[in-house]
Description:
There is one protein chain. It is globular and about 60 Å long. By secondary structure, the chain is mainly beta. It has one domain (about 45-189). The chain is about 10% helix and about 50% strand. It starts with a helix and ends with a strand. Strand 4 and strand 5 form a beta hairpin.
Amino acid sequence: MSTDSALAPASQQSIKAYADSLHWGAWSSANDLTNGGADDISELELLSGLSGVNEIEIIWDAVSLATAGDTIGVQLGTGAGPTYTTSGYLASGTYVNAAGSGAGTLETTFMGLTGLSSTATNTYSGRAVLTHLGSNLWIGQGNGAMINAGSGALTSGGGTVTLSGQLTAIKFISGSNNFDGGNVYIRYR
């Protein structure tokens, strides 16, 4: 049997709080992956000091790597330091070109969001969403395009990781390769 409070209409404050929880925060400013043109970084911390985040959206635009043979993705961190989780990911990235061929990768040290870069002239643009499912379990999935001298391919990637604690930081990485172009944007709720 229901109680009267279970049947009472929701207050304006509770409706507003619920509606506010559905809205994304503002996009970050462009995060330059070239480090001001130095082309000397393979990772870039996007956010730190997070608390209570349940969903993260990332967009990357015209991202390129200095050499072939890597994929791009994210690593998640915990604690005040933060300490980034560098193992335990079960992730994969792949690409498929117009001819139907492509390549995939299995990643265990980060969450891959694209397929393997086959040449240094590829550029990537795409979008990913990471979702917290409770108990420090995060699921991520991304899609985008890989463009190279007038040809292109669809890219897709994603995976899962269980963190040792609450998420406090996220960084965009390329495995071991340096970025030499592009920007990345992020927002969360």
